[in-house]
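Issue 218. Parser rejects a valid record. Input:
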Amino acid sequence: MNPLNINQELSQNVLKSNTSLVGIVCKDGVVLGADRRVTSGSLVIDKDYRKIIKVNDFITVAFTGGVADAQLTNKFLAAELRLKELRTKIRPTVQEAAHLLSLMTYRNIRTPTMLLHIVGTLIAGVDDDGKVALYTIEPAGGVYQVKTFDANFSSGMPFILGLLERQYKKDISVKEGIELAKECLKSSTQRDVGSGNGIDVFSITKSGIQHVISEEIIADKNGRYLKEH
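Output the parser choked on:
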């Protein structure tokens, strides 16, 4: 396949999100990672935008797509989960949250409007029994439980999945997954022009959600490198 055909294939199948997301399932939890660059066409709008958001103390999401859509979706999701918990007196499971978010995405893109709602999501969390799970929700609304790893439809997906196909191993620990997620984001930000400026990595375990890596990408005379905050 020549470069022209590769570009055509990517433009038809990868969400034009200019984002790098990664979710990795580990034997003792889940790891989520994302870059920080926000773009509008060829213009960089924000260099320090956090794309991984805690919905509550037990569930976190990583978005790719329109910023406004992602922010609004997160607010509605948090509100709906809280209402469900108040009505039932039971904390919603990660699976319930994922399917609710899937329904919201499916409904929104099929509601007649001048502005399309297009967001892809990775959602991870821990249930009352300590079980941790990761789900991916495609921009069309389909929801799938992730058993190994995923990058949703972020523009950095081809670079991330290529690296994970070679380096991911079964029963990887969260500690190893954190470093692997970091390598995935470093790789994608070197090749995907829409991703960069910084990275965030979160761990989700039975102990809770932790922001384990917060680094910015700084250019100097010797090239690009990561600097921890």
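Fixed in the parser; the record now loads. Residues 12-228 form a domain with the Glutamine Phosphoribosylpyrophosphate, subunit 1, domain 1 fold (CATH 3.60.20.10).
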